[in-house]
Amino acid sequence: MVGFLDFSLLRDFFSLLLLQVSMWGSDSFLVISPSEPIVAMLGMDTVLPCHVSPAMSAENMELRWFRSEFSEAVYVYQDGMEQVGEQLVDFKGRAELVKDYITEGRVSVRIYSLRISDSGIYKCFFKKGSEFQEATLELKVIGLGSGPHVFMVGPEGTGIRLTCTGKRWFPQPEVQWKDAMGEKIPSLSEVETQDDDGLFQIEASLIVRDSSKREVSCSMKNPFFGQEQVETISIPESFFPRTSPWMTAFAVTFIILGIFLGAVVFLAWKERQEKKRAQEAQTEKEKESKDKGRRKQLYQQDWRKAKLYADWRKEQFETVAVTLDPDTAHHNLILSENRKQVSLMGNAPQNCDASVRQGQGESETIFSVLGQNCFTTGRHYWEIEVNIGTEVGLEPRWAVGVCSDTAERDEWFVESPEKNFWVIAYNKGVLFTHLEFLSLRQHPQRIGVFLDLEDKDVSFYNMVDGSHIYSFTGITFYGTLRPYLSLQGAGTYVTICSASDDTENYPESSPKNHLKSRDMGVAQEANPLLPS
C-alpha cells in the first residue's frame, strides 16, 4: 500500500515537471493571484499583486487590472507605458504600477487613499501575443472608526440609562455590553445610520437597574478584521434611584384604590345592564300583553268563526261538571266512586278493530257510557283526559264527544253524525272522525269538548297546547244531547276533569296550523285573527 502511494506521488511530480517543461518551450503561462482576500484599512494604501508562472518577463505584455467588466479599468499597462485613456475616473491619480520585479513576471497595482467603494472583486489580465490569462482578487476595506464612547444619559425608571456611540465604522461593527464579571448584557436598543461615504454611525442604549453592576463596558468589533475597541464606565452608587418607604406605601395604596374604583365602575355598569335588561323585558312583556289584548279583542268580536285560542274560547262557554251515568254504562265498564273515571274490566272480551269492521259492515260490541248531564240549549264546555294502557293485548281504542239520548247504543253501532254521534276516535295510533284521518303534531291526552247549541257546533281542542283538533258545524240536533265516551283495550281509562283540575302550565294559546273542519270556510275566516 505504501509502495502504491509513493508511485502515485512520483507520477504526479513527473506530470507537473513535463507541464513546466512544455510551457518553457512555448508562450503559454498562468496568472496567479492571492487566494485570500486582501484586507486594508480605510484611508491607507494597498497593493493588488499578480504574477505569471513560469516566471518570465512581463515588460512587453499587456497588463490590466479591472473590476467586474473588462472596460472598467483600474490600471492599464501597454507598450511599456501606462494607458490612462481607459482608466476609471475614481482611480485616476490613485493607482500606479509596481514593477520592481517585472522582469520576473511579478507586478502589482498600488491604490492610494482607500475608500469604502474600493471594496470588492478585481481581476488582473496578462496578454502576450495571442496568449492571455487572468486571475481574480478580492479587496476588503475596513474602517475602525472612533469610539466606542460611553456616557450616562440619566436616571430612567428604577435604573440609569447608558449610551454607547461609535462613528465612521465599516462594515457595521458588533456592539456588546458587559459587566465587571465579563457577563454579556443585551442592548435595550441599537440605531445604525450610514453617511455619504458609506460609513456607519451607531448608537446603543442600556438601562442598568442592578446597583451591583456599577462597572459596565461597551465594545465595538470589526467582523472582518477582528479588531475590538472597548470603553468602560463606572456608575457611582449614589446615582441609582432609591425607593422611599413612603413611595412604596403610596404605590400600594394607589393600586388598591385603582382596584376599588375598577370594582365600583364594574358594579355600576353591571347594575345598569341589569336595569336595562329588566326594562327591555318589561317593554317586551307590555308589548306582548298589548298584542295579546288586541288579538283577544279581535277574537271576541268574531269568536264563532275562529277555531283558535282554546283558553279564550272557554270564556264564551259554561264550564260543566260532567259525571258519568252508571245506568247507561256497558256491563264491561267500571266507573269510579265519584263517577269521573271509566275503565274496562280485566276479563272483558277484547274485540277486533271496531273501526275497520265498521267499514266492512261487520258487527262488534262497543263499550260506551253517557254523562248524566243533559243539554238542549246554551254553550257548554268540559275536559277529559285519556290514558292509554301499555298492557299486552289488543290495541287500545277510545272515542269522546256527544250523542243524542235517542241514539241507539246496543252491542254494535256506528259512531257517526247520521246516527246522532259527534265524536273523535283513536285506534292503532291514529286519530280520526267518521269521515277522515286527522294529521296532528301530537296525539292529545287532555281534550276540551265545546258544545254550542246556539250555533249548532261541536269543537274539540288539545288543551295541552291549545291547538284546534276538529269541528262539526251546521249540526241538526235531535232530542237532548249528552256527553259520550267509549273505550277498549286493557289498561286504558278515561277521566272527566273537574274545573279545579284546570292546569296552570298550559302554554299560552297561539294559532296552530292543523285546523280540521267540515266547513273549510271557517278556517279561512279565522285568518284575520292571526297575529301580524
Keywords:
about 525 residues, 8-stranded mixed beta sheet, 6-stranded mixed beta sheet, about 35% strand, disordered N terminus, disordered C terminus
SSE arrangement:
Elements: H1 2-24, E1 30-32, E2 38-41, E3 46-53, E4 62-66, E5 73-78, E6 81-82, E7 95-101, E8 106-111, E9 120-128, E10 131-142, E11 146-156, E12 159-169, E13 174-179, E14 184-185, E15 189-194, E16 200-208, E17 215-221, E18 228-234, H2 245-301, H3 310-313, E19 318-319, E20 333-335, E21 341-344, H4 354-360, E22 368-370, E23 379-387, E24 397-404, E25 421-427, E26 430-432, E27 437-438, E28 446-452, E29 457-462, E30 467-473, E31 481-488, E32 493-497, H5 520-526
Parallel strand pairs: 2-10, 19-23
Antiparallel strand pairs: 1-3, 3-8, 4-5, 4-9, 5-6, 7-8, 9-10, 11-12, 12-16, 13-14, 13-17, 15-16, 17-18, 20-21, 21-32, 22-31, 23-28, 23-32, 24-25, 24-31, 25-26, 26-27, 28-29, 29-30
Membrane topology: Single-pass type I membrane protein
Transmembrane segments: 246-269
Protein name: Butyrophilin subfamily 1 member A1-like isoform X2
